[in-house]
Amino acid sequence: MVIPKNTYDYIVVGAGSAGCVLANRLSEDPDISVLLVEAGPEDRSVFLKMPSAFAHAMNSWKYDWNYIGDPEPHLENR
Predict the structure, then answer these.
(1) What average pLDDT does the structure give for the chain?
(2) Strands (E), the chain
(3) What contacts 56, CB < 8 A, 6 or more positions away?
(4) Strand, helix or coil at 54?
(5) pTM of the entire structure?
(6) Are 36 and 25 spatial neighbours (Cβ–Cβ below 8 Å)?
């Protein structure tokens, strides 16, 4: 059982592949505490497991929060 703390040495936001690798490597040191935070529902849907259903998941409000970024001047307003 993990006992929650009030302070951490590192907070990693996002438990995707990069976030999990980063949190794992940071937590290899027993003197360092790491909090890994992830949002959203569990990914048990067939649409997330099947590569050919990628377009369905990306166009669904259930799986994609549809955040739209602002144009970045140093990236040719992309």
Answers:
(1) 86
(2) 10-13, 34-37
(3) 47
(4) helix
(5) 0.58
(6) no
- pLDDT > 80? residue 30: yes
Distance, in Å, from the CA atom of 44 to the CA atom of 42, rounded to the nearest integer, reads 6
- pLDDT tens digits, 36-73: 998 877 778 888 888 888 888 888 887 777 788 899 99
**One-letter amino acid identity for 31?**
D
C-alpha of 11 from chain center = 12
Q: Which residues pair with 35 in a beta bridge?
A: 11
Pairing of strands 34-37, 10-13: parallel
| Residue in 67, 16, 69 with CA at minimum distance from that of residue 39 | 16
- Tell whether the model's pLDDT for residue 76 goes beyond 60: yes
Is 32:26 a contact under the CB 8 Å cutoff?
yes
Number of residues written out for the chain: 78
